[in-house]
Design goal:
single chain; alpha+beta; Helicase, Ruva Protein, domain 3; Lysozyme; five-stranded antiparallel sheet; two-stranded antiparallel sheet; 16 helices; 7 strands; about 10% strand
């Protein structure tokens, strides 16, 4: 029997018997067993109303474009010289200078109270959302439901983020049906996922709410607090390019966490410009350029940037954008 006839016969029999498969492909999660188990947990562990959650997830939509996007992040598909072009651009530098000028007071306060580099805070917001111009077009509810219930490779992680999102909505009075963010459920100018929002966002203007979509004090303060809480060390280097010496492949770090000292590498003939103190902890980063590889010695502060996004390409983009913004700002801070 032809395949299409088999499918037609199967569908006809199901209809005659009054049986219908839940329309997950159409986006309705309300009858999905994983969703129902999640609702049970939210009711038992956090006191949510079962009826309200059922109604909420009946409105959640599976987004195939989200599943496609998460399967091909730029960090894993582009070499450094192509990846850099996305973020370190004249437009982002100009936008960063304008953002710094406009919010200099808040940035200075954050730098003072939280001991962070204001240029890094500006660069993060520039890389993430072009200074708030593109904070995400997906409903966070749809994004997190899709990844929690229809993306097995990381369903555990996104199920947890969905849990955090529901709790966050209750804490900060966020409309679950209207909140928008990235395809991975990241929100606001700084693109905080729900767990980061709950753990690191701060009410920097003390108005009683942590608002990362429209309150610039909270936005800047929260990004700064993220770095503060992850161990940013004011005044220490971030990354220095190797300008002399050959780097053996076995010295290249896999996770950017400093595992040797600049002195150890100097003894092997590996030096940077400017030079680093011998006791400075570093990791060795390798980047692909069009005509070969370049190497950098990265510090604890570089590793802290990777706590925001684990990709070393991301961290280097943030660092180089911050340097360009700082230079341009100092040229004309008015």
């Amino acid at each position: 029997m032809p395949v299409f006839l088999k499918k037609l016969l199967s569908a006809t029999l199901l209809a005659l018997c009054g049986i219908a498969a839940p329309p997950l492909s159409a986006g309705d999660f309300s009858h999905n067993t994983r969703t129902l188990a999640f609702i049970d947990d939210m009711v038992k562990q956090h006191g949510f109303d079962r009826g309200e959650l059922k109604a909420l997830f009946a409105e959640a939509r599976k987004r195939d474009d989200i599943l496609e996007a998460i399967a091909r992040p730029a960090e894993k598909t582009k070499p450094w010289h192509e990846y850099r072009k996305i973020f370190v651009t004249p437009q982002r530098v100009e936008g960063g200078v304008a953002f710094w000028r406009q919010h200099a007071g808040v940035l200075e306060r954050a730098a003072r109270e939280l001991e962070v580099d204001p240029a890094i805070v500006v660069a993060i917001i520039g890389v993430e959302t072009r200074y708030g111009k593109h904070t995400g077009r997906y409903r966070v509810l749809d994004a997190l439901s899709t990844l929690a219930f229809a993306y097995p490779p990381r369903s555990k992680f996104f199920r947890s983020e969905l849990e955090q999102f529901l709790i966050l909505s209750r804490e900060e009075n966020i409309d679950l049906r209207k909140a928008r963010g990235s395809y991975a459920g990241a929100m606001g100018y700084g693109q905080f996922i729900p767990s980061s929002y709950r753990n690191y966002a701060i009410d920097f203007d003390r108005d009683g709410q942590r608002d990362l979509w429209s309150n610039i004090d909270d936005i800047i303060g929260s990004v700064a607090n993220y770095f503060h809480r992850h161990g940013w060390r004011a005044g220490e280097p971030v990354a220095n390019r190797v300008t002399r010496g050959k780097v053996p492949p076995e010295l290249v770090s896999e996770n950017s966490k400093p595992d040797r000292t600049a002195g150890e590498l100097a003894a092997l003939g590996i030096h940077t410009t400017p030079s680093l103190p011998a006791e400075q902890p570093v990791a060795v980063l390798e980047l692909q350029q069009p005509h070969g590889k370049e190497h950098w010695l990265t510090s604890r502060n570089f590793y802290v940037i990777t706590r925001y996004n684990r990709s070393p390409l991301y961290a280097m983009s943030v660092y180089q954008l911050s340097q360009a913004i700082r230079h341009a700002y100092r040229q004309d801070p008015s």
